[in-house]
User: Which sequence fits this backbone?
């Protein structure tokens, strides 16, 4: 493993095309001399302890295809000169301490496929120019202080988008209905924002959708992709019974529906979710007997079970003691009787 600072001598390597110093325990600043490497195509410096700012003239490396400085301690703003990198496909700036606005110049990255700026201190709205990134496949702004509304016609602005992460910000307004037409979508994460309105209709049209994370919404959950592996709809205002169709999501490994206004009993079809590892239904309004609703013994892969703060009653299911994978059980604030039998 390397350590110390990045040598300024790299700036003399005019023919250098690839430089990967990730996971090298490096510290200090990014040498501005690196911008002299005019033939550089990939610069990977992630998972170090780099400090200081990104050189303002980073856009001078005209042939750059990948720039990755994720998981460091960089500060300052995102240089607008990134917009000069017409060949850039990967821009990874996540998990630093960058601040300020997202520059509109990023909208000129006509070939960008992966744009990660998660877990920084960015603020402001998404520039309209960002919505012109028609080649984008994966977009992540998670964990910043961004706000404003989303454009309404996302299916036209991001025709190739597969993974959309904007959770943990301050976005508001409604989630565009056009999301249901984004046929390539695999992950859609808008959780922990200030959205209002309803769950978009016809999410079942998204045949490739594997993870759905939404909150603060009303509406129905019944129509969702059968390819879902993660279904996180906690902290919403969903006021209905748990739809029986949830039992058709055979690929689910995580189902989190806590802190809503769900009504009635737990549906019998949950026992069909044989791949389920995490089940969270801490809701304050569900009722009935778990023993007659869920065949715990059939959920062989269940690791975590949260059914606390409801109105359940009756005997604690004896199958809990036979669940060899189960590590976490929260059942408090109910009216259960008996004990778990090992």
Assistant:
């Amino acid at each position: 493993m390397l350590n110390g600072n990045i040598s300024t001598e790299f700036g003399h390597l005019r023919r250098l095309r690839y430089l990967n110093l990730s996971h090298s325990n490096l510290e200090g600043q990014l040498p501005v001399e690196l911008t002299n490497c005019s033939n550089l195509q990939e610069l990977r410096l992630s998972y170090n302890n780099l400090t200081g700012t990104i050189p303002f003239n980073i856009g001078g490396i005209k042939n750059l295809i990948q720039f990755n400085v994720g998981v460091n301690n960089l500060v300052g703003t995102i240089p607008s000169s990134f917009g000069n990198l017409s060949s850039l496909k990967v821009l990874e700036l996540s998990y630093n301490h960058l601040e300020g606005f997202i520059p509109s110049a990023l909208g000129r990255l006509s070939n960008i496929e992966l744009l990660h700026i998660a877990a920084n201190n960015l603020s402001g709205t998404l520039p309209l120019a960002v919505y012109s990134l028609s080649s984008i496949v994966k977009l992540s702004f998670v964990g910043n202080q961004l706000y404003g509304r989303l454009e309404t016609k996302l299916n036209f602005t991001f025709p190739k988008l597969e993974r959309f992460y904007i959770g943990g910000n301050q976005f508001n307004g409604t989630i565009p209905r056009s999301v249901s037409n984004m046929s390539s979508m695999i992950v859609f994460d808008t959780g922990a924002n200030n959205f209002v309105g309803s769950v978009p209709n016809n999410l079942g049209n998204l045949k490739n959708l594997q993870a759905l994370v939404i909150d603060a919404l009303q509406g129905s959950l019944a129509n969702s992709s059968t390819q879902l592996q993660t279904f996180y709809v906690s902290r919403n205002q969903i006021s209905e019974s748990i739809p029986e169709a949830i039992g058709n999501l055979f690929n689910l490994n995580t189902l989190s529906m806590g802190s809503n206004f769900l009504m009635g009993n737990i549906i019998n079809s949950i026992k069909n979710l044989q791949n389920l590892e995490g089940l969270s239904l801490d809701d304050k309004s569900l009722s009935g007997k778990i023993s007659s609703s869920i065949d715990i013994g059939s959920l062989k892969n269940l690791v975590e079970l949260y059914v606390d703060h409801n109105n359940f009653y009756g005997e604690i299911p004896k199958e809990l003691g036979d669940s060899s994978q189960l590590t976490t059980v929260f059942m408090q604030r109910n009216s259960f009787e008996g004990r778990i039998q090992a």
